[in-house]
Amino acid sequence: MQPIKPLADIVVPDPKSDEVYETRVLDRSFRFTGLKALLGAADISKAGDRIAGLAASDDVTREAARQALSGLTLQHLYDRPLTDDHGRVDAVMRVNYDIDLRAFVSIAKMSLGALKDHLLRCPPAEVMRVGSALTGVMAAALVKLLDVHEMVLVARKARRSAKARTMLGLPGTLSSRLQPNHPSDNLDGITMLVYAGLSMGGGDQLIGVNPAIDTVDNVGALLRHLDMLRSSTGAPSQICVLSHVKTQLACLERGDPVEILFQSLAGTDCTLTEEFDVTVDLLDQAYVAMGQRGPLRGVADAWMYFETGQGSELTYGKHNGMDMAVCEGLCYGLARRYDPFMVNNVTGFIGPETHCDNHEMIVSNLQDHCMGKLMGLPMGMAPCYTLHSKITLEGQQMATQLLTAAGSNYYMDVYLHTDRMLAYFDTSGHDNQTLREVHGLRPAPEFLRWAVERGIFVEGSDGAVLRGPQWGNPRAFCKSDVELQRLLESLPAAHGLENAGPRPADRVSRAMRANLAVGREAVYADLRLDVIAGIPFRSIRTDAKNREEHLNDPELGARLADEVRSQLRAEHNDVQIVVSDGLSAEAIHHNVPSLLPVLLDGLRSRQCKIGQPILAPFGRVKLAEAIGDALEAKLTLVLIGERPGGDALASRSMSAYFAYRLDEHGVRTEAAHFSGNPEVRYEYSVVSNIYAGGLPPIEAGSVVAEKVMQILTHKAAGNRLERLLSRKASANDQDR
User: Fold this and answer.
1) Confidence bin at 728 (pLDDT 50/70/90)
2) What SS3 class is residue 217?
3) Nearest Cα to 427, choosing from 454, 408, 455, 406?
4) For residues 34 and 87, is the Cβ–Cβ distance under 8 A?
5) Fewer beta carbons within 10 angstroms: which end of the chain, N or C?
6) Which CATH architecture fits 538-735?
7) pTM of the full structure
8) Quick one: average pLDDT of 523-541?
């Protein structure tokens, strides 16, 4: 376990005032005020940076910015730490200055242009030495100067392995993070996806589930189930449930098999603390706890798992004036502090407000991979997309071919591309095997030995690894055909198990692509008032005037139109219900008419004071805060259409977001102490996947009503509520 340097011991230069960077292109002069502006203008044009006003207005301006940037020395960047909106160096930026200072001294006088040339010429060992001396800002500045071939070449030189039960990142290998997500955490459905992934040689990196319900009891049950599946199949891998780090630590305390600890990271401290409910101090504590009590101590050399991806800081409006690539580079500086087992990049996951098309997604993925590998991280990549963007399956496949050439350690294995719980589209087991065969790669050695024994792979006399007779056959893990059929029946979007070589059979592909088309169509469906006409809504407007604005700029849907805000007055209700189409009007059409009457009856029976329901077309989840502040409701409940994903039926999936307003001084103090964020104003809970194929709307009405009462009774939401409920349950068990 590597020692963690206290934050106070990390030396950071004092911030400096913005400087003007000037350059000329032919007979034109260009001026960029401040390092943040220069860095933003030097990158390719991306939707998120355009929204933030950081992207260059044209190609010549972009090249002028790159010209100015390439002449800056690394010492210049070191001496000018980027600050937050209050002019302070935040915790994430401070962590980034924990670099190899001896290595830095040897390169400090290099310009970025000279550094680029040096990395292209030098051997791999020198690339890794130089990378240890770079902050995230330096790495981000560098990749803005690299073209596609150069990013592939530099990243390929920077190889980093990691060890748990399996050894990952070895030369000639390509691993897989099996993700058997299910919209309702159905254990049979998860089992089916695990069997399917293992049968295609997936899961040697990790078997990890994103839980639909982030509670200690549910996460613990999922951990034990994954552990049982891993043990019963004998697959050499490691398991993880990708819940909040606080939930996982609570599971670790009670003895659940938390083998690899997960957390999403952000490149600004305000995003990390206020949106992800995590602090650097908490991550420090988690790292130490896993080293001391994790079930793989003595087996694994590393045990932390982080996910990142360009755009989250911008989406929350907390990027501190920095462009998306710089924020992402800062994430890698934070991840490096904990010597992680794996880092997974999910650029493309958010939507068109950050990356609107294939070009933006592909280049950003190459940037992220190059930055992470250069900074010494075991990088896996998940070039992914949502149906409300213009990114396509073909663009995703182009990205994986380039990233494999660049030496990506692993990809996701999401069966038939379709994440049934998170409603996005990622790489599949078929993709992983295709890439192995195209590039002559194999799984981790421990996993390969097991897979050969199971007939999933065979080794040829020339050492080549070929698909074996059991490749792609999940029946090999089932006791009978009846068991296989039972497992399949619990799995949405199971279009078939037939394969054609390493690819799904054409019949399966056609069904999958047709469902994608239906999902994309749902994004652009209009909210039909006639379907919900029987509900006495009061209608309001957001700042999004049309669908294009709504899809491309999430901030607009989170704000009330000026005339609406000026007319709203405090009502002091216990609950204010807000209904919005969000990213699928079809979800509202198919769920609200059944759910809302049950919900209202449940709340009224408990003597809740309820405001007249609000209908808010083109809304986002954060609209809850604008409405909650205006009406001064204790709890604002947003019923909103989620982004379409999975099969055609899943395009009707809705979620319920609970925004609890921390208006009592004592309650807010407790929330601030729990989160580590003294500015916290709201706490959030969520009930997701409300639709006929997940949590049925009538049943969801009761579930949502119960969650409302828990929040109001305990005066807490989110992770703090779950901690209180867990303690109460433990106390009741002891009383028995």
Assistant:
1) confident
2) helix
3) 408
4) no
5) C
6) 3-Layer(aba) Sandwich (3.40)
7) 0.88
8) 87
